[in-house]
Design brief:
The complex is a heterodimer of chains A (312) and B (308).
Chain A: H1 2-29, H2 31-58, H3 65-83, H4 91-113, H5 117-140, E1 155-158, E2 161-164, H6 168-187, H7 189-199, H8 201-206, H9 211-233, H10 245-258, H11 263-282, H12 293-307
Antiparallel strand pairs in A: 1-2
Helix pairs in contact in A: 1-2, 2-6, 2-9, 2-10, 2-11, 3-4, 3-5, 3-9, 3-10, 4-9, 6-7, 6-9, 7-9, 10-11, 10-12
Chain B: H1 2-22, H2 25-48, H3 57-74, H4 79-101, H5 106-126, H6 128-131, E1 137-138, H7 148-171, H8 173-183, H9 185-190, H10 195-221, E2 223-224, H11 226-229, H12 233-245, H13 251-270, H14 275-289, H15 293-307
Classes of the chains: A mainly alpha (312), B mainly alpha (308).
Chain lengths: 312, 308
């Protein structure tokens, strides 16, 4: 009996164990790149998780996802500059503000294109993305800004191996958000309703779930989560209107890698992508090419899936 | 009725050709910009007619521009040939990419093409020796030596060529294939339409047009750089023009380009920095309230009255 359980456990988790072994082996080769990759990958998955939720439940690809992140970072920056609020503390008000913005955007625009096909939805969120980028550009100009807090540059040394400790917060937050999402979906009534809507909106409607409300909450929460990311990112990144835009593509790449509705998969693919980028970046002379890794991964994933004739 | 239609088209054509004779240099430069974006807008709409939303416009535009400037600066190819080669290079890269990404549908295709402009600009930024890296590349012998009248005629020629191709797409067999793919892919497939072949064909042709426009545009100024050449302008403006005019038609993007092109001059004077916000707002408002655009709405209104 025990053997059976053991083999079932092995079967279920064999891929994950292979992955961990591969990462551990790579870590012996390039330790810095791996650690950096894990930190960066956690940031990607932190941003990708809410996108995956909107895409899976509401069925809308939000092309303005990264730009809402930029907005959050600027709001957090304003809190820091005008009121002296620590970036990590500003997470609370920024999350609330972004939730409000998300609800407003949903009520004013998204709710009107829910039934009108993917073309209009994409164009709409593309328009919203452009409005956000250009507004940030007008209000705060394109001059890059930086925030200094002493703890952001702290580091740690273990046996000749020095690394920045602040970025480990990304990993912490990524796990926290993932676990929070899972608990929400499995344990709460609203979460169960969300799950049902994601599986079959019509069926959910028939059993009496208020679909509109679920959509509203999911969209609002997915924007609100970006408030957390904004607060965590602020001390370590320079701020300009396009700061969040590249994350939209990477988040989408994670969703394509993990498949819709696979939240733990987002974290794993995020870390894989982060390590891939970090390894390319660690090769001398080729660091500039690391921005292409996600595209290569996207094309590879797509080709593999289409070869297997799996409908994406 | 038909003779009236043809004579109106002929008159408009003569007016367009003779425009530089009557107007001043400022208006000609506005007209050149309008023609450039009109062609991009039309080519974007041609791809859209297959039901696939492509965000690759800026990417292929920049690719054409870079190709033209590089071959005329380094290999000494004359500007006119370089424009054609720019289009061919954009087309052949579209062919290779299309084989990989045209297997995708809906959001997956749209988002992969959205990445193209940034992917191309990263590649170009990293190939220092050929492309000049982040600082860009200059060619000293510009097209027609800044003679705006001749540039106007060249852009008009490209725009007219695109209009003809667009009309050919609407009137030949391709039209049935394209419309049936957009309406219902499974049905189209089961009726024997080779979906993949037609999608690749349309994707390559539209990318070639975008490459040619990009090459002509870059040759006018003799300068390319990753930021300016792959700018989101060349995606945002064509899309908003086509949407305002009305998608799935030849006249729609033309009307949209003229409306937005003229009003953007006014907007630039009113608000020098933030005028791009207006384009975003236009896209959102059109999608929400008049998804058929100006031309589409008027056309539907007229045909409704006729049937009454």
């Amino acid at each position: 009996m025990k053997d059976l359980e053991k083999s079932a456990f092995w079967k279920k988790n064999s891929k994950l164990i292979y992955l961990i072994t591969a990462i551990a082996l790579l870590a012996l080769w390039r330790p810095h790149a791996i650690l950096y990759g894990i930190q960066r990958g956690s940031l990607y998955s932190l941003i990708g998780l809410p996108l995956s939720l909107t895409l899976g439940v509401v069925g809308i690809m939000n092309l303005a996802h990264g730009d809402f992140l930029s907005l959050g970072i600027y709001v957090s920056y304003m809190f820091f500059m005008n009121l002296g609020v620590d970036p990590l503390l500003s997470i609370v008000p920024v999350t609330l503000i972004l939730f409000g913005v998300g609800v407003l955007v949903y009520k004013l625009t998204i709710t009107k294109v829910l039934k009108s096909g993917h073309l209009n939805q994409l164009l709409l969120t593309f328009g919203i993305s452009m409005i956000l980028i250009e507004s940030l550009n007008v209000i705060w100009t394109s001059r890059p800004r930086n925030v200094y807090v002493p703890y952001a540059s702290s580091s740690m040394t273990i046996a000749n191996f020095t690394f920045g400790t602040y970025e480990l917060l990304y990993v912490l937050f990524a796990f926290a958000v993932l676990i929070g999402f899972q608990l929400f979906l499995k344990k709460t009534r609203l979460g169960q309703a969300t799950y049902a809507v994601g599986q079959n909106p019509r069926g959910a409607k028939i059993v009496g779930i208020n679909i509109g409300f679920v959509y509203l909450v999911v969209f609002g929460v997915s924007i609100a989560i970006l408030g957390i990311v904004a607060g965590v990112m602020l001390p370590r990144s320079s701020i300009f209107p396009m700061v969040g835009a590249p994350y939209t593509m990477r988040s989408f790449c994670l969703v394509a890698m993990a498949g819709l509705g696979n939240l733990p998969g987002i974290l794993i693919s995020g870390i894989v992508l982060g390590i891939g980028e970090a390894i390319v970046q660690s090769i001398p002379g080729y660091s500039g090419w690391s921005d292409l890794v996600f595209f290569g991964v996207l094309i590879a994933v797509i080709s593999i899936r289409s070869m297997r004739r799996l409908a994406l | 009725m038909k003779t009236i239609k043809y004579s109106v088209i002929l008159l408009l054509l003569i007016a367009a050709v003779l425009l530089p004779v009557f107007t001043d240099a400022y208006f000609i430069s506005v007209a050149i910009t309008i023609l450039t974006f009109m062609t991009l807008s039309l080519s974007w709409d041609m791809m859209l007619r297959t039901g696939q939303l492509s965000f690759g416009t800026a990417g292929f535009f920049g690719l054409g521009g870079y190709t033209a400037v590089i071959i005329s600066a380094d290999l000494g190819v004359d500007p006119y040939t370089s424009i054609i080669i720019g289009g061919l290079v954009a087309g052949s890269i579209a062919l290779v990419l299309g084989i990989a990404i045209l297997k995708l549908r809906e959001i997956y295709f749209a988002i992969t093409t959205l990445a193209l402009a940034s992917v191309f600009s990263v590649i170009i930024r990293n190939l220092h020796k050929i492309t000049g890296g982040p600082s860009g590349k200059i060619v000293y012998q510009t097209l027609f030596d800044y003679d705006s009248t001749k540039i106007y005629w060249l852009m008009l020629g490209i725009a007219l060529g695109t209009i003809v191709i667009s009309e050919l797409f609407k009137r030949t067999r391709i039209h049935f294939a394209v419309d049936s793919i957009r309406a219902d892919e499974v049905v189209a497939k089961s009726h024997g339409v080779d979906i993949f072949k037609y999608l690749i064909f349309v994707f390559v042709v539209t990318s070639m047009i975008q490459g040619v426009v990009g090459a002509a545009y870059a040759q006018q100024y003799g300068f390319v750089s990753p930021e300016s050449t792959f700018s989101a302008h060349y995606l945002l403006l064509p899309i908003s023009m086509a949407l305002v005019g009305g998608i799935y038609s030849t006249i729609g993007p033309i009307v949209g380009a003229i409306i937005l092109g003229l009003s953007s001059e006014y907007l630039k004077l009113m608000m020098p920095y933030g005028h791009l916000i207006i384009y975003g707002v236009i896209i959102v408002l059109v999608v929400l309230f008049i998804p058929r655009g100006v031309y589409g709405t008027i056309r539907d209104f007229i045909s409704e009255r006729k049937h009454r």
